[in-house]
Design a protein that fits this description.
Length: about 90
Amino acid sequence: MNIKVTAMDITAYKGGALVVNLFHKVKTPGGATGAVDKALGGIITSMIKDGQITGALEETTVIPTYGKIGASRVVVVGLGKKEEFD
């Protein structure tokens, strides 16, 4: 496995998978996750509203991007409750 960390516009990343995070019960993602959500037409927010993504600790959801951004898929990883995150 090859993991690379780079500072850049997250939606410009080209590669196999892009990993973003989400705290439990967040209704509208912000930061990098929000930027990816916007670039994908709000699919992450829609999946949150439908209960498909909750942000529960260690929950992972793989979303195909269908060429809307450089990465072929986005992996949303749940961080659990914000007040318990350390």
